[in-house]
Specification:
alpha/beta, about 35% helix, 5 helices, five-stranded mixed sheet, about 170 residues
C-alpha cells in the first residue's frame, strides 16, 4: 500500500517493497490504502452500489480520508474517487462530504471509533479490517491490466507534508 499514512512508515514500507522487487527482479504495483478500505467495505456490504467514506487516523486530531462511489462491474467492483485523498479534522471532512451528497454514506477505517459524534448520520459504520487481502486483490487486478512498475517508479501517496517541513 502506498498510503496515505505517516511519512516515516510510508518510506520504510516503500523502501522494503522496492528492495524486494529489485532483489527478485520483479515489478511492483502501488495500491492506495484508501482504495483497499473502500473495496473491503463494499465486499462486506454485498450491495450493487454504495457511497463509502474511508477514514484513517492521521494523528494530531486529523484523519486521512477519501470518499468513493463503488459499483459492481463486470469481474470486479469499480471505485470512483469523489473527494480526496485529503487530510483534515474529522468534523470538517464529514461536513464537506455531506455537502457533496445527501445520500447515505458508509464509513470504514481505524479513525471511526473516535469520530462517532460526527458520524451519527452515517448509514453504517464498519470496523477497520485487515487490509492486506484487499491490497493484494487490487494489486493483482492492476498487474493484469498492465500497471506493474519498475521499483524505481513506485511513489508514496503523501497528503500532508512531513513534520520536518512544517517547523
Amino acid at each position: 500500500a502506498t498510503g496515505p499514512g505517516a511519512f516515516t512508515g510510508l518510506r520504510i514500507g516503500m523502501a522494503t517493497m522496492q528492495g524486494l522487487a529489485l532483489a527478485t527482479g520483479r515489478p511492483v504495483v502501488g495500491v492506495s490504502g484508501l482504495d483497499a478500505l473502500a473495496l473491503t467495505a463494499f465486499e462486506a456490504l454485498q450491495v450493487p452500489a454504495a457511497r463509502i467514506g474511508c477514514w484513517v487516523d492521521a494523528a494530531r486530531g486529523e484523519v486521512f480520508g477519501g470518499l468513493f462511489d463503488v459499483t459492481r462491474g463486470g469481474t470486479a467492483p469499480s471505485l470512483t474517487l469523489l473527494s480526496g485523498p485529503e487530510v483534515g479534522e474529522p468534523a470538517l471532512l464529514w461536513s464537506h462530504w455531506r455537502a457533496l451528497e445527501n445520500g447515505p454514506i458508509v464509513i470504514i477505517g481505524d479513525a471511526v471509533a473516535r469520530s462517532a459524534e460526527f458520524l451519527s448520520n452515517a448509514s453504517r459504520v464498519l470496523p477497520h479490517p485487515l487490509l492486506a487481502p484487499a491490497v493484494g486483490r487490487l494489486a493483482r487486478r492492476a498487474a493484469l491490466t498492465g500497471a506493474p512498475q519498475s521499483p524505481h517508479d513506485l511513489q508514496p501517496l503523501y497528503v500532508r507534508r512531513p513534520d520536518v517541513e512544517r517547523l
